[in-house]
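Exercise: predict the fold of this chain.
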Amino acid sequence: MKKIINTDNAPEPIGPYNQAVKSGHLLYTSGQIPIDPTTGEMVSGGIREQAIQVLENLKAVLEAAGSTLDDVIKTTVFLADMADFPELNTLYAEYFGEDNAPARSTVQVAALPKGALVEIEAIAKV
């Protein structure tokens, strides 16, 4: 049985999907892009500002499901430019730490929704 998770503390989906789905003891989040949930607009700035917003959005979705960043098992990071990888890594470590960091894949993509520089999705335990 699945449970749909949505919160006003993260951006509304921009298509026919939900922010996350809980199934058993696992939570699957949709990819989060750097949209400020209070304005509905993309945040200004570069990879650092965008990644902070993405991780804050991800954190809000996790919390709505009763989970935290510490419960994340796996992430997939999509970058518009792999040159942003070092800066993303630094910020990612600030949020996840290194000892408890989840498994991760990072790929460069041709484009992301709304021209975002980064998108992150996660699987977490709940």
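Check your answer against the key: Strands lie at 2-5, 20-23, 26-29, 72-79, 103-108, 118-125.
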